[in-house]
Amino acid sequence: VHLQTDNLAELRAGADLAALTRAQETDLPASARIAYAASESDYRRAIAEARRLVGASGRISLAELPIVMEADQATQIAESWLFETWAARDRAQFALPPSLVAIEPGDVIALAGPGEPRHYRVTEIGDHGAREIDAIRIEPDVYAPIPATSRTPPMPPTVASGPPAAAFLDLPLLLGNESPDTGYFAAMLRPWPGTIALYQSPETSGFTLARRPRRWPDQPSRQRHALPRAPRLWNARLGQRSRAALRRQRGSH
Known about the structure:
Layout: E1 2-3, E2 18-22, E3 29-38, E4 45-51, E5 59-69, H1 71-87, E6 90-96, E7 108-111, E8 118-128, E9 130-137, E10 165-169, E11 184-188, E12 198-200, E13 208-211, E14 221-223, E15 246-248
């Protein structure tokens, strides 16, 4: 809604049609911070901040938001919040005739004045014959998308787990083309660091890297009961099976 001076109502003879006030700078924040859950960092708490580079204010505004979002979204919210607060330091009070009954709180009006019209959001209306309006200034550019630089998420902290528990497995040669001295190796560690290194040496020194064992989803287990005795070959029936109960050990690979 665009309002000219002719659209305003005069409450008292000789009084100004509109009263414009501005809050002092020291009451406004110099920094706005948004705490949120970062989607790119395993939902850890993060903070996005917007600051004014000039001004005498030292106040900080902080909002704890239980919202999952990305860093550029949080930065845009902080920027809009900060500059919206500074724009709202300007307030306007004026009166409108009853014919403009369509204007309600929350509406944005453009009030003519020296230079370009200024935009205000209506906050309060008092209907006492003439409609007494309280409004705060807004800047439409504040809500425009703000380009934000992409940020690399921090690396997760390294957890010191200590040496793993290792074991050589007495298993048959499964592939058929292994060397006769081939062995199988398993390691257990909690929490699992992601990979481990296996070194070898014929002596107690001079170890060299043999390989990095492959990580399997299974876990080493311990047999709970002894297996039944195998039947004689001439009495064995085709398809006869034996069952074993195993107890898993967590944190193994």
